[in-house]
Design goal:
27% of the residues lie in helices and 21% in strands. It is an alpha/beta fold.
Amino acid sequence: MAQLHYRHAAMNSGKSTMVLQYRHTYAACGRRGLLMTRLDRAGTGIVSSRIGLAADALEIGAATDLTELVLDRPAPRVDHVIVDEAQFLAPEQVDQLATLVDDHDIDVFAFGLLSDFRGLQFPGSARLVVLADIVEALQVYPMCWCGQPARMNARVVSGEMVRDGDTVVLGDTGADVGYVVLCRRHHRAGRPYAPQPDPTTCGGPDPQPAVDQGRDHHLAAVAS
């Protein structure tokens, strides 16, 4: 029986790498599938990972009917669909994925972010959490600059963390907009980077606490 899977994680956790591994593994087993994506940062119609792997994919548009896209393909019939960047799907497109599973016995594996840079769920992710048969967090956790597991995505514009703006703004492409992953504490505090050391003290001796000389002299006199 086919199932709808949703696997989610923060950025830099290897989601797209896992997508490409799924594609390879299922193809090696002789299964026939479709690889899809929406708004990959590397361009249209491609799944790209930060470690340099990439593959061609069907680009999902804002108005694409995923049921029709899959069922109208020429023979042979596909038996599974893999979707990257699933957080960008519209809720009705997630329902269409469920239709492929329930009415046509086609497995669907969706991968994406759970929340946006504000810490709010994407509409597509929220719908996937409701409908998916299996919802799993990837077990590879990126790290915040403080060393704690990072589960929050933060948007940085010209070096400053921002909490306002359009939900979808692609970064990591050489523009002033970028993204970092943070632990909850530093996402709430708005601190996207580690504090820089004070150049006036860096490399010098640790400052000594102030000493109450009068008290020390009094203790010495009592001891004698």
